[in-house]
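ugh ok so i messed up the first submission bc i forgot one of the chains. this is the corrected input, ALL of the components this time, i swear. 755 residues overall. if the numbers dont match what u have on ur side tell me asap before i send this to the collaborators (the ones from the other lab, u know who)
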Amino acid sequence: MQTAKSIIVRGRVQGVGFRPFIFGLASDYNIVGTVQNNMDGVSIIAEGDINSLDKFINAIQTRLPRLAKIYEYIVRDNELAGFENFSIIESSKSGTSSLVIPIDASICPDCSEELLNKDNKRYNYPFINCTQCGPRYSIISALPYDRPYTSMENFKMCADCREEYDNPLDRRHHAQPNACEICGPKYELYRIDGTLIEGNIVEHVAELIKSGNIVAIKGIGGYHLVCDATNESVVNKLRQRKNRPSKPLAIMAKNIDEINKICSFNIKERDLLQSIESPIVLLNKRSDSNIIAESVAPNLSQLGVMMPYTPFHVLLFNENNIKYLVMTSANPSGLPMLYKDCEAFTYLNNIADYIVSNNREILHAIDDSVVQVIESSASIIRRARGYVPEPITTQSSCDSIIALGSQQKNTFSIGRNSQIFIGPHIGDLNSVEVYNHFLSEFNHLNKWMGVNPMKIAIDLHPSFTTNELAKEFSGEIVKIQHHHAHLVSCMVDNNIRDENVIGIILDGTGYGTDGNIWGFEILEGNEGSFERLAHLRYTNLPGGDKSIIEPWKNAVGMLYSLLGERGKNYSKKLFKDQSDTINIICNMIDKNLNSPLAGTCGRLFDAVASILGVCTKATYDGEAAIILSNLADLNLINQIESYSYDILNEDNLFIIDFSSCLERIIEDKFNNVSNEYIATMFHQTVVNSIIDTIILLDKIDSKIVLSGGSFHNPYLLLGVKSKLNKLGFEVYSHRNIPTNDGGLSLGQLVIASKL
Ligand SMILES: [Zn+2]
Ligand SMILES: [Zn+2]
Ligand SMILES: [Zn+2]
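and heres the new structure output, hopefully the right one now
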């Protein structure tokens, strides 16, 4: 018996070959009817016998094209109209617009195959792409996503490409960057002095890299600096030239088998490596492998690894002997990723030896994303290429609200109807260049959305650059407390709505409602308000934020604040040549000069790392915490005792005091106890102190959210989570949104929508 259904599909279903996919399925299952794009997705009318129709409806969800993603799938009965065939009909302008701007996706298996197939017309063509792969967000100048509004507008398709583009059944139907050797963009290789080098570029680049050169290569979202990851001296040369002494560098490896020789990974990690987003995945190094130069990620047990994701990468790794390359963003220190060709030669002079450029313009810089898997769940450290600008859908309206994010790891968010678009990773808002980069990326995305900001959510911190940025807009400015934004960001990430939760928020620095620096917080709250229940005891932070790059000074401040003269004496024993500076620091604290009160997890980790002598000066953000976290033995999570600590109830606020823990750590250090043992005990102390506080708070039925940058630390995340689970709490950590300040703008925006 013939039956009719109407099917509405919402999500990433436009510009991803969805209509030809439906057309193909309809023919497989003898379905007649229509498929049509409208403003909020794809609408299908399907008629067929009931069995085939069921199979068709099921296959849409299970056999999706690689780039498509369904958020909402509605099937309703329809009246039989008696169609004779199945057809793709013209787009309709009906429905409320729910925008999805396509992401930049890694090269697909079909294109990889064609790229390396001598008989294919796109053999060796480094811009091969189709509806299932290639650049999108990075080349769009305006919406709708259509070739004239991309940086492909100047490349007129040849007759062959045009035919593919126009044919609804071709896998390049409406693939906007479609091109070939005849009509498309081209790569060029230059010496850094600007001399053009003729010949086979890929072969040439492979030779240059093997002979120890540093080559800047233009990719999807910007330029990478590339060199041989197995060659210690060239990696050191790159570090010197970039003035980046120890921050780990990411590598790209030829394939999964080659990755397996240097790092271990689980299924989740393998899937992420091979995903359309193709992020950098943090993997555990194999301790028995010495293939990769130690200076790629010195003193760390993890390595950031990604797979080739552009056709050019695939060709390069297809050359003999190219297996592991350092692939790091070519950004002048503290500045946005380099992506404009006109700037490449100037900035890269003295850094790169050669430049590989091309004439497909990048319109939006976008860094590689970084993801870490803890147990079997992924957590995003940097949300950029492949993830941006995929929207977050909320249940309530967030329309016309924008949020400007944090000072570090900045991202912004834009609310439109019930969708929130989180912009790309902008970085640290410490320079005019980054400020301008923020505005240019914001204005672009916002123009696409057509949002007129009525409310601008910013952090409470009086000296964050976002205070200045907010003045660029005319709407009402609302100030949101940093850790409240973290709490709500984690709620939204886990679809928790309209209820009070407990938030355990551990991070580096956030401005508190009392004017002090917060960052080791237990809060209770919801999207509208919060209350502080417990925090780490305040200690003086000599020099304020400046001490972040000199963790040992912060250790002195902490020891002197907590232990007085005894702390001063410990400091002098620990930091032997610094007696004069220690006297100055203690004086500053006595006189209350430029030494604000702080109670943060990040600074506590800094202090302990410098007491252990593993990081007295930080050369990159979070270095001390990362090194200390690497020392802790994950096999001992919740299996080891902890140092002692105190929890005091002061005016209905619980204060967690680490004085005795720090003293024990110093004694152990003086008694030559191993750093690994001390670091593990210290991690366990942080875990136990939080759990004991939660027990004292006696909020037994609450859901608990974990947020803040310190939860990238697997010991803290797993230790806290498993103990809370044992106590019967439902515990939530971040999934699709960074737990660090990269996720802050999302929380700010949702709070602003409730105010
Ligand atoms: Zn493809
Ligand atoms: Zn062509
Ligand atoms: Zn934070």
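quick check: The longest helix spans residues 675-697. that seems consistent at least. DSSP finds 22 helices and 32 strands in the chain.
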